């Protein structure tokens, strides 16, 4: 499948965070189906190409693997052991459609438009919160990285003004407040001492930041 690099998949797969629920092999089968579509491969050849595909997990660290198994398990879904399992997952996710063309050939197609996980899967409140947190982290990824790097480079303890953080990280103060509130009140990975609530902090206000190491190590390693 030399042309796999040129396969275009719907941007919603990443935007809607479907990758949280797709093991590496399932994601690769999804790409393979895009390749079959672009090459107009249908029928027995398409089915054989998928089921016989030599696809392995190569980029998964243990904690990510455990997390995906846990997420799928909570949804009552089997972690894939072969390509048929990957196909079954994609069908359950309503990401693909297996149909017949006018000549009776089996055709594997992307379902367009792509639905959101919240619309397809029975997600509990805890999982919905996880999705919300991941979306926040993606939106503020640069600010999170810059601020956390500053804290870590100061031995996990930082006493300074909000203005110093802003100038050092080049993150605007409004976003600093958002990120700090998330890290303190939602995630709990850092602690802040200040004369004001986080939402009221201004450039000249001094704050003391320390890392809650137990939470930090757990939350910052796996999203």
TrEMBL record:
A UniProt-annotated Pfam family: DUF6042
InterPro entries: DUF6042 (IPR046105)
Protein name per Swiss-Prot or TrEMBL: Uncharacterized protein
Gene source species: Gottschalkia purinilytica (Clostridium purinilyticum)
């Amino acid at each position: 499948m030399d042309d796999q690099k040129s396969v275009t998949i719907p941007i919603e797969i990443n935007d809607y965070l479907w990758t949280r629920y797709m093991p590496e092999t399932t994601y690769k089968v999804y790409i393979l189906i895009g390749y079959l579509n672009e090459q107009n491969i249908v029928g027995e050849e398409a089915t054989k190409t998928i089921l016989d595909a030599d696809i392995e997990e190569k980029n998964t660290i243990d904690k990510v693997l455990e997390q995906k198994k846990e997420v799928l398990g909570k949804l009552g879904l089997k972690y894939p052991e072969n390509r048929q399992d990957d196909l079954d997952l994609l069908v359950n996710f309503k990401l693909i459609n297996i149909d017949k063309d006018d000549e009776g050939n089996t055709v594997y197609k992307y379902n367009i438009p792509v639905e959101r996980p919240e619309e397809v899967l029975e997600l509990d409140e805890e999982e919905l919160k996880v999705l919300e947190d991941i979306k926040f982290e993606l939106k503020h990824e640069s600010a999170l990285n810059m601020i956390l790097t500053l804290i870590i480079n100061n031995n996990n303890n930082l006493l300074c003004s909000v203005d110093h953080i802003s100038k050092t990280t080049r993150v605007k103060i409004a976003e600093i407040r958002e990120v700090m509130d998330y890290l303190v009140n939602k995630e709990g990975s850092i602690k802040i001492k200040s004369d004001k609530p986080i939402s009221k902090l201004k450039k000249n206000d001094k704050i003391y930041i320390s890392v809650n190491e137990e939470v930090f190590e757990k939350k910052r390693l796996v999203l």
